[in-house]
Amino acid sequence: MNSYKNIIILTGAGISAESGLATFRASNGLWNNHKVEDVATIEAFERNPDYVHDFYNELKLELIKAQPNPAHLAITKLQQNYPAKISVITQNVDTLHEKAGNQNIYHIHGQINQSVCLNCGHILETFGDVDTQTQCHNCHVTGMMKPNIVFFGENLLCMDTVEQLLSSCDLFLSVGTSGVVFPAASFVQIAKYNGAKTFEFNLEPTSNNFYFDKHIMGPAGTTLPAFIEELLKSS
Ligand code: BV8
To answer: What's the whole-number average pLDDT of the chain?
Structure first.
């Protein structure tokens, strides 16, 4: 194995599957019995904010109980022992990377324990319920809180940093993502173009096939720790 200086680990719902959390596209297109387009679009939120708030308040109860699995923990081990800049770019809104002690985490699709005030931009951090009656702690306006989740049709968060990281990346690991949602699905292409070695960790090859140097099949809770052990041995 080479020695790397700028590592990106892109994660999707698959890294949290072994922590008991549902992925998005494994079931019959329903996600926690809701259609994604009924809850994860800006139109859905504008049409029925209470319905979307209820969905995310319910999801919070599930995500708060989940514990990190060996895949999340292996990332902490790598960050603590491998001499490189190691960034976690996650599409997940759960906080399992934080719970595992990962550092340099970028939630490009937002975070379940955050709501944003559409009036003043204040971020409210809470695992408690938020709804159209919630008053902003900063501007004190009521009814303007939105889950700090990037809905379909909204721009991603942290993209300036992500673009910088991708420009100098020399090792790109994609873990548990189907490569269906853009622009996250295009990150491997950018990394590859910039000369990175690219590895995909999934149960099956995904639509991004072409851009990966190697596909490491199997559950991430097994494959990622094994890969990281090898990387640490070689450093
Ligand atoms: C954007 C928030 C610019 C909810 C999410 C029309 C108008 C506007 C935009 C578009 C449009 N048409 C297309 C687009 C682009 C759109 C898009 O990509 N659509 C897709 C569906 C075609 N993207 C956007 O809208 C993005 N914004 O483009 O802004 C813009 C703005 C205006 C107008 C034009 C452009 C916003 C994208 C973010 C949407 N929000 N989530 C929430 O999370 O609560 S996306 C949602 O999908 C989640 O964030 C999730 O993380 C993400 C990706 O899914 P995955 O994580 O990959 O999960 P999935 O279930 O799919 O796959 C899991 C994988 O794990 C599988 O491969 C499985 O095999 C594997 N696995 C399972 N178990 C394991 C495992 N692997 C290893 N081990 C295991 N144990």
So the answer is: 94
